[in-house]
Write a structure and sequence with these properties.
Two copies of one chain form a homodimer. Chain A is an alpha/beta fold and 418 residues long. Chain A is built from 14 helices and 19 strands. In chain A, the strands form three sheets. Chain A has an eight-stranded parallel beta sheet with strand order 8-9-10-11-12-13-14-15. In chain A, strands 3-2-7-16-17-18-19 form a seven-stranded mixed beta sheet, with helices on one face. The longest helix of chain A is centred in the N-terminal third of the chain and has 17 residues.
Chain lengths: 418, 418
């Protein structure tokens, strides 16, 4: 057992001074010190630091680290067609596995304990997750030319790989698929009684062209086709109509916010006010490192609130507590990781130690606002998944040397980008 | 002498692999290793890390750390009148000095080597700067009720305090002063042949009311009164007209951008495209920790570019190289620290070591874009001012214990906020 004491704990009801004990992969106790203490393998004196649930990066493309700082400052379609697609055509299973590892290092350094990923070469991705003990849920990324029947095998295969791997039904987006695929995925959703995910309403163009093609918005189209009969949600969700928001609220779907990527690609701003009014479930994602370019949930939380204030021209807009909850618990619920969403007895020990001593956290007037408005990755002292410390004080404990991982990724990057 | 080798250097012409040698307070050599090497007191093997000029926080209110996370999410006027002003009325020289120290710790941890500050109790502020060897330039903050004649004594006093302290003529803003003050400051500017600074066009309301009062915009008013005859500039500068931009360009004035504060207070977005087209000098500031809430120039640089893209609805908008230059060199020029603006022989050794090994910097496809789009304070390994290391690997070297400083600030905060 590991004991964390003399600090703060971000619990579902707020910030407490409770201790947190971890036994195996789970949290065994959250409360004050006891008179009769068990034997601990390790005792961590937090000295005021905070234990909080790990961030859940609810939409990302981990394998895209190789394009970081190599494909910037271009309009979306030029970016995709001139930089992203030609480079991705050169990806191999080996290089993608190397690039995924760089992303996983960054997740760990930034307090992220799980990611909801959509990319190529899923076997390599899964292998890293299993080897390291990092929670990785994949979303199926069907596009034109893919056989939607593949989802049946994959669903069975990847959802039976143990606690660190998951697979969700989905497809890339409306504009990259036809009706037959949507119908096939809907059948699969009914077969498995499973949620469905995709990029949804990321740009005005996407929604406009969907209306031209199908007479309705992407959200309404998917809903009418039964794709949301067992839940799910969408990534980005910027250009949603009121009716789309109502569908999300009624179905209990989750909108995954990607403020940094939507800014960098000039896509637009999520309608947070309307989503809050309708009670839409929210989660937070970084999107891939080619369009962000960091995998940093502090920056996402900050920007979501800032953009809400600017969009509404009201400094009172946004809600740091709600967005923090979306970034840790909302993401867990979206990914099906309902045992990783909170610091509470019986929950998986997916947690982060936040350094409250660094000057950006002082004075400690309000822990939640500190996290959202002045926190940054330098405040992450430790990242634990399933009771195992994978990152602490700048060191990674993943069974491989971090610098070797980065150098291998750079070798493959050079082969692809020249 | 200290030798930094085996890394990268951000020089005025771009990123090189040159060594950097520091002798006393200055940079003595930038170039390849020599056959005949002098004796060094310390040799730092950078292992690929980057030496770059320190960030210059060109607009801040350091003493406001006590309000961090204590005054958020309120519209600007409520924020000022209900939270900021009543709390500030309780400030003392002692408490303000303690709050300034917390800000200075944060500057150092985040790679900031100089700040352009506007706040109360300047003697306490100056004392910390001198004691620590941190470069602090004050801007005079005249408001209603202040005697503008005080600027003469202060100008002489603070500009003769050695290399770490500076004082610039200025006033809080148009809306907090009358014509007599502007005329008096203009006289002082002509007396000293000195630049003038103030908050300028931060909100639409400010500009609208200035036009009602004076018939012209703040920028035009100040220009007509001769306040800019010896240069200077403005903080925020969001609601500038084309004519205002022309005045800034023609006079060589500097617009200090504060994207995070302008977002958090829902003030608006700087017109970067127009400023770039007209060639307006740019610098970057955090504004105070009550309206930001971090003192983090990485986040500022990111947000400036993101906001430009969103405002122009064009992912190609913004310019990471230009904004990085504004954050390091533009700020130095604005503050009169022209010997602290670059890594070059003879320049002051105000520099930062950036950790290029952390995964957010990998692969290293483009150092400048890495700094602006994926860099964060966790990448700051060392901050040096005038050849002296004041921060390295999480430790502060300022002659006082960092935790003691933060605790003292928290004690004073409790006295003020209850």
């Amino acid at each position: 057992m590991i004991r964390f004491f003399n600090g703060r704990t971000l619990e579902p009801g707020g910030v407490t001074e409770n201790e947190v004990w971890v036994d195996g992969s789970a949290i065994s106790y959250v409360g004050p010190a006891k008179a009769d203490m068990p034997a601990f393998e390790r005792q961590v004196d937090l000295q005021g630091d905070l234990i909080m649930p790990g961030f859940k990066d609810a939409h990302t493309h981990s394998g895209m680290t190789f394009l970081r700082s190599a494909a910037d400052d271009l309009p979306l379609h030029q970016w995709l067609e001139k930089q992203v697609f030609p480079a991705e055509a050169k990806l191999t299973p080996e290089s993608t596995g190397a690039f995924v590892k760089v992303a996983f290092l960054e997740y760990l350094a930034n307090g992220i304990t799980a990611c909801f990923d959509m990319y190529f070469f899923q076997d390599q991705f899964v292998q890293v997750a299993k080897d390291w003990g990092f929670r990785a849920v994949m979303c199926e990324s069907l596009t034109f030319g893919d056989d939607p029947q593949r989802v049946y095998d994959r669903y069975e295969k990847y959802n039976n790989m143990g606690p660190f791997v998951g697979y969700r039904l989905g497809f890339h987006a409306e504009y990259t698929n036809g009706l037959e695929t949507f119908k096939a995925v809907s059948e699969a959703a009914h077969h498995f009684k499973a949620p469905v995910w995709c990029h949804n309403s990321e740009t005005a163009k996407e929604v406009r062209e969907c209306v031209q093609r199908h007479g309705v918005s992407p959200t309404k189209l998917f809903d009418e086709l039964g794709l949301y009969d067992y839940g799910g949600g969408g990534y980005h969700c910027i250009y949603m109509t009121d009716e789309d928001m109502d569908i999300f609220a009624r179905r209990g779907l989750t909108a995954v916010l990607n403020a940094c990527s939507n800014g960098k690609l000039a896509s637009g701003t999520f309608h947070l006010k309307e989503a809050m009014e309708k009670g839409v479930n929210l989660a937070v994602g970084t999107d891939g490192p080619a369009s962000n370019n960091a995998l940093d949930m502090f920056r996402e939380m900050y920007l979501i609130n800032i953009m809400a204030k600017l969009r509404e021209e009201n400094a009172a807009a946004g809600d740091p507590g709600l967005i923090l909850d979306a970034a840790v618990s909302g993401g867990a619920r979206a990914m099906g990781l309902t045992d990783c969403d909170a610091i509470a007895p019986g929950k998986q020990a997916d947690m982060v130690r936040i350094d409250m001593h660094r000057p950006n956290m002082r004075p400690v007037n309000n822990v939640v606002k500190n996290l959202v408005y002045s926190g940054d990755p330098s405040n992450v002292r430790m990242t634990m998944i399933a009771g195992k410390v994978l990152y602490e004080d700048g060191q990674f404990f993943v069974g491989e040397d971090a610098e070797d991982i980065c150098r291998a990724a750079e070798k493959y990057t050079k082969q692809i980008l020249g």
